[in-house]
């Protein structure tokens, strides 16, 4: 039996969606973020030393971490490779986006979250303008321009492709949905990036995605 260690409002939602699309038997171990820090509870470290979600445990095998690897594992070992394109070019595209999501796109979204948090965090009044100034400068000179480049790139890609690896749903889509949902909730809009917004809407309209939401509980990005 597959156990998904699932954290509310997190990347593990993408794994739930894949499990539902594959129709695999699984169970959920649910973890709640700390309301103040938004961090995962320490109990998740008992499952994997990094204490991050998602983690998947398949029977007696060692715990699997990293969403990209979990997606590959579930698709290959439990899903007859259903979401890996047959065509070679589409296959490399699927693998590219699988790496890209966490390797290139997520760091800028995470930096946006961190610098926005710095700006709104409580601190002595005389430090606030300095902290705010530094955060604004790093955002304007480094984070925002890079984020814009990436999101415009994705916007153009989705203008030419139905799914990330072409015309079929693939492993890439399960990986890419989380950063796009996060971007829509804090960095872009349906007006600025209509292709991304339409893509996310299309994913969220799928029956398996809706079932995943029912299984995982509240998910603020949907
Ligand atoms: N690259 C990892 C990132 C895992 C990760 O950072 N997960 C977040 C959830 S979105 C987490 O567990 N955050 C809680 C914490 O840092 O305590 C993956 O794709 O699985």
- Averaging pLDDT over every residue, what do you get? 96
Distance between termini? 28 Å
Number of helices: 7
The hetero molecules present are: glutathione
What proportion strand?
5-15%
What number of domains? 2
Proportion in helices? 55-70%
CATH topology of the largest domain: Glutathione S-transferase Yfyf (Class Pi), Chain A, domain 2
Report strand order across the widest sheet.
Answer: 2-1-3-4
Level-2 CATH architecture of the largest domain:
Up-down Bundle
Tell how many strands the DSSP assignment holds: 4
- Class by alpha and beta content: alpha+beta
Offer a quick outline of the entry.
By secondary structure, the protein is an alpha+beta fold.
Which terms would index this structure?
Glutaredoxin; 7 helices; Glutathione S-transferase Yfyf (Class Pi), Chain A, domain 2; binds glutathione; 222 residues; four-stranded mixed β-sheet; 2 domains; alpha+beta; single chain
List the helices and strands and how they pair.
Elements: E1 2-7, H1 12-22, E2 26-31, E3 55-58, E4 64-65, H2 67-78, H3 88-120, H4 128-160, H5 171-186, H6 194-204, H7 207-216
Parallel strand pairs: 1-2
Antiparallel strand pairs: 1-3, 3-4
Residues 7, 10-11, 39-40, 52-54, 66-67, 102 line the site of glutathione (GSH).
Can you describe this structure?
- The chain has helices at about 10-20, 65-80, 90-120, 130-160, 170-185, 195-205, 205-215; strands at about 1-5, 25-30, 55-60, 65.
- It is of the alpha+beta class.
- Helix 1 (about 10-20) links the parallel strand 1 and strand 2.
- The longest helix is centred in the middle third of the chain and has 33 residues, at about 90-120.
- The model has no long low-confidence stretch (mean pLDDT about 95).
- The structure holds glutathione.
- Glutathione binds next to loops.
- Glutathione (GSH) binds near residues 53 and 54.
């Amino acid at each position: 039996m597959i156990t998904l260690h699932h954290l509310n409002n997190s990347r593990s939602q993408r794994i739930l969606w894949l499990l539902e699309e594959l129709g695999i038997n699984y169970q959920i171990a649910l973890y709640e973020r700390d309301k103040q820090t938004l961090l995962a509870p320490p109990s998740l470290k008992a499952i994997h030393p990094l204490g991050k979600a998602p983690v998947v445990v398949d029977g007696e095998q060692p715990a699997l971490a990293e969403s990209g690897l979990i997606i590959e594992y579930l698709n290959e070992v439990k899903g007859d490779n259903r979401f890996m394109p047959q065509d070679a070019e589409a296959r490399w595209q699927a693998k590219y986006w699988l790496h890209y999501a966490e390797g290139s796109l997520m760091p800028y979204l995470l930096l946006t979250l961190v610098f926005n948090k710095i700006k709104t965090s409580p601190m002595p009044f005389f430090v606030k303008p300095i902290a705010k100034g530094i955060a604004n400068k790093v955002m304007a000179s480094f984070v925002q321009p890079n984020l814009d480049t990436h999101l415009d790139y994705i916007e153009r890609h989705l203008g030419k492709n139905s799914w990330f690896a072409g015309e079929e749903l693939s492993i890439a889509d399960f990986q890419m949905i989380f950063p796009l949902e996060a971007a829509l909730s804090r960095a872009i809009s349906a007006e600025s990036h209509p292709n991304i917004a339409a893509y996310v809407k299309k994913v969220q309209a799928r029956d398996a995605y809706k079932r995943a939401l029912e299984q995982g509980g509240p998910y603020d990005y949907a």
